[in-house]
Design brief:
With about 230 residues, the chain is mostly helical. The protein is about 80% helix and about 0% strand. The chain is built from eleven helices and no strands.
Length: about 230
């Protein structure tokens, strides 16, 4: 490549950087704004005009990046996955035992639900019917798979006990969590979510952990407000 051609490529890359940065900022604004709308209104009632207003951008800018409400919803779902899935791997690195990891994941998920509109919107979209069901539900499929992988060796070595298979137990625990958070949302706008999850795991510790290893105090501590 000649020197003048190389210089042109470098110059073009430099010129594009601010534009790319603005494009990313616009997409981020749409995702954040749409998350607030989906969290508040749900997918069915949300409108593109609501998302434009909430995002603080022009309609033309939004349509440049997203052609439909469905595309925007999928972007919110993808961002929720990107924020929530690392919680599963982080728990493996920071918690000593499998039961403690499960508790840590649920506490981290609860904190996201209480403080992050993108996560709330992604979870809500996963619960709503229609074309978004499958991609939104991928987060739950990944959660079940990773939880099952944690449970299998713990059940085999007797660290945890259950008559259920690892996959079925994973689905049961995640379903338990989902029910607790939905009830908390309906009854208190999630103000009592930590208390509900504490009670869930106090129930589970008696059901899953051998008597000599049960530590209810650790469960209590895990769900104290920060």
């Amino acid at each position: 490549m000649r020197k003048d051609e190389a210089n042109r490529e470098v110059s073009t890359a430099v010129r594009r950087t601010p534009q790319q940065s603005r494009s990313q900022e616009t997409q981020r604004a749409v995702v954040e704004g749409a998350a607030n709308v989906f969290d508040r209104e749900g997918y069915g009632k949300a409108s593109l005009s609501m998302i434009v207003e909430e995002s603080g951008i022009s309609q033309g800018s939004m349509y440049f990046h997203f052609k439909s409400k469905e595309q925007i919803a999928l972007a919110v779902i993808n961002e929720q996955h990107a924020r929530s899935l690392p919680l599963l791997t982080d728990a493996v690195d920071t918690s000593p035992g499998v039961f403690e990891r499960l508790v840590a994941v649920s506490r981290a998920m609860a904190d996201q639900l209480r403080h992050d509109a993108v996560v709330r919107a992604g979870i809500r979209l996963a619960m709503e019917e229609g074309a978004l069901g499958a991609p939104a539900g991928n987060f739950y499929l990944n959660w079940v798979e990773m939880t099952s992988a944690m449970l299998a060796p713990a059940l085999e070595r007797g660290e945890l006990t259950s008559g259920l298979s690892p996959e079925t137990l994973a689905k049961t625990l995640i379903g338990f969590f989902t029910g607790v958070q939905l009830m908390s949302q309906a009854m208190s706008s999630r103000d009592d979510l930590l208390a509900g999850l504490r009670d869930m795991w106090l129930f589970a510790v008696d059901a899953m952990v051998p008597p000599a290893d049960r530590d209810a105090a650790a469960v209590e501590a895990a769900f104290r407000p920060a």
